[in-house]
TrEMBL record:
<keyword id="KW-1003">Cell membrane</keyword>
<dbReference type="GO" id="GO:0042918">
    <property type="term" value="P:alkanesulfonate transmembrane transport"/>
</dbReference>
<dbReference type="Pfam" id="PF00528">
    <property type="entry name" value="BPD_transp_1"/>
</dbReference>
<feature type="transmembrane region" description="Helical">
    <location>
        <begin position="20"/>
        <end position="41"/>
    </location>
</feature>
<comment type="similarity">
    <text>Belongs to the binding-protein-dependent transport system permease family.</text>
</comment>
<dbReference type="GO" id="GO:0010438">
    <property type="term" value="P:cellular response to sulfur starvation"/>
</dbReference>
<feature type="transmembrane region" description="Helical">
    <location>
        <begin position="230"/>
        <end position="249"/>
    </location>
</feature>
<dbReference type="GO" id="GO:0005886">
    <property type="term" value="C:plasma membrane"/>
</dbReference>
<dbReference type="InterPro" id="IPR000515">
    <property type="entry name" value="MetI-like"/>
</dbReference>
<keyword id="KW-0812">Transmembrane</keyword>
<keyword id="KW-0472">Membrane</keyword>
<feature type="transmembrane region" description="Helical">
    <location>
        <begin position="113"/>
        <end position="133"/>
    </location>
</feature>
<feature type="transmembrane region" description="Helical">
    <location>
        <begin position="168"/>
        <end position="189"/>
    </location>
</feature>
<dbReference type="InterPro" id="IPR035906">
    <property type="entry name" value="MetI-like_sf"/>
</dbReference>
<feature type="transmembrane region" description="Helical">
    <location>
        <begin position="201"/>
        <end position="223"/>
    </location>
</feature>
<feature type="transmembrane region" description="Helical">
    <location>
        <begin position="80"/>
        <end position="101"/>
    </location>
</feature>
<keyword id="KW-0813">Transport</keyword>
């Protein structure tokens, strides 16, 4: 297909490919049901989709381990929303400052490079000792998990701005604020959204791990308790909803990106 014949709207590509995605998803569920029905694996190892659907209904209506499924979902969503938004609120400005001022870069970069290789899960024992098993420790873990990627994506976006654009702004006599809102911010927004989309996946990984270790509610806690009781169907309920919610968040971020960063054709 030639360049001139390619669709210019990414939205049209998404809408055209949606039936294919749904067909593949349905085929995967049907294959899962067939494999489970043939008992190639013990039911405790691979519950069928019908079993998982029943457990979704049961955990929603009757609850599991003292909480209903909506309550566990709400607990996880609350933690990830607060921690992730806090990381965005801190990481994006810090990334701008590190890319703009060498002194800020020299002050923060050594700490960033020191902590970045440390697995975020290594922070869990320290956070639990300092703040207990309450909400603060889990929110802080999400914050520390996603902060580096947001700083680095923002800093990289600022540094990638062509020098010619900034020189052109100087020629036209734009004020610093005009340069920021007219050139810098529009150029960096795609990188910020990319960092957010990567960060939200990392945030879910850290949240579920924290809930499995130090929480009494949330999808991670539900998975941990159900696994200990060999309630594999309930484990799959948690996995399914983590995947669905993560996918929904990705769709929301892409939709916002298409609205905000419409000039790039990304999202």
């Amino acid at each position: 297909m030639g360049i001139l014949n390619r669709p210019t709207s990414r939205r049209s590509v998404i809408s055209r490919d949606t039936p294919v995605s749904w067909a593949v998803a349905v085929a995967g569920i049907l294959l899962w049901q067939v494999v489970a029905s043939l008992h190639w694996f013990p039911s405790v190892a691979l519950p069928s989709p019908l079993r998982v659907a029943h457990d979704i209904w049961a955990t929603t209506v009757y609850g599991y381990s003292g909480h209903t499924l909506p309550e566990d979902i709400a607990a996880s969503l609350g933690r990830i929303t607060v921690g992730f938004l806090a990381a965005v609120a801190v990481g994006v400005p810090v990334g701008f400052l590190m890319a703009t001022y060498r002194g800020v870069f020299l002050a923060i970069d050594p700490w960033l490079q020191f902590f970045r290789p440390v697995p975020p899960l290594a922070y869990i024992p320290v956070l639990v000792i300092w703040f207990g098993i309450g909400e603060l420790s889990k929110v802080l873990l999400i914050f520390f998990c996603t902060l580096p990627i947001l700083i680095l994506s923002t800093m990289g976006g600022v540094r990638a701005i062509p020098e010619t654009r900034l020189r052109l702004a100087a020629v036209f006599g734009l004020t610093p604020w005009q340069r920021f809102f007219g050139i810098v911010l529009p150029s960096v927004l795609p990188d910020i959204f990319t960092g957010m989309r990567v960060g939200i996946g990392i945030a879910w990984t850290c949240l579920v791990a924290a809930e499995m270790i130090a929480a009494q509610s949330g999808l991670g806690a539900m998975i941990e308790i159900a696994g200990g009781e060999l309630r594999t169907g309930v484990v799959f309920v948690g996995i399914v909803f983590i995947g669905l919610i993560g996918y929904a968040m990705e769709v929301v971020l892409r939709t916002i990106e298409r609205r905000v960063v419409f000039w790039t054709g990304k999202g």
